[in-house]
From TrEMBL:
Keywords carried by this UniProt record: Membrane, Transmembrane, Transmembrane helix
Protein name per Swiss-Prot or TrEMBL: DoxX family protein
Compartments where found: Membrane
Membrane listed as a keyword: yes
Upper taxonomic lineage: Bacteria, Bacillati, Actinomycetota, Actinomycetes, Kitasatosporales
Length: 149
């Protein structure tokens, strides 16, 4: 597909890179000192404790609460890895699916706070569109190395 300035595949690469920059900003704006000393998980625990769905409370209590430091690192460095992977186009389909899942987790945890949901829904939509459009076909290490053809 040819458009005014770029091909369709190049426009989808722009979308992928933009999503990567968004993930990188999610990582960058975290107060790392507070986050890694338990602040982020403590905040999430307060939200999970009042969640309207028991499965969210139970899942948080079984998976996250026993490992607050580990989970803080997992969340922060997942955002960093997603951002860098999408920007350079490395393992892009895996990054898109992982990002979609992370956004859905954020969406479910914060279901009562609609101020946060626009960002999560938009990022999830971009991940789904990028995956279906094979957005790693242009301007990516995946394309350069012949991965995921």
């Amino acid at each position: 597909m040819q458009t005014t300035w770029l091909t369709g595949a190049e426009w989808f690469a722009v979308l992928r890179i933009g999503l990567g920059l968004w993930w990188l900003e999610s990582w960058r704006h975290k107060d790392k000192k507070t986050w890694f000393t338990g602040g982020g998980i403590t905040w999430a625990a307060g939200i999970a404790a009042k969640h309207r769905w028991p499965v969210v409370r139970t899942g948080f209590d079984r998976i996250v609460r026993p490992r607050p430091r580990l989970m803080a690192y997992v969340v922060a460095y997942a955002e960093l890895a997603l951002g860098l992977g999408l920007i350079v186009g490395l393992l892009t389909p895996i990054a898109l699916v992982a990002g979609l899942l992370l956004n859905l987790i954020y969406l479910v945890l914060m279901i009562h706070d609609w101020a946060e949901q626009g960002q999560n829904l938009m990022m999830a939509l971009i991940s789904a569109v990028g995956f279906c459009a094979l957005c790693w076909q242009s301007w990516s290490l995946d394309a350069a190395w012949g991965l995921f053809l």
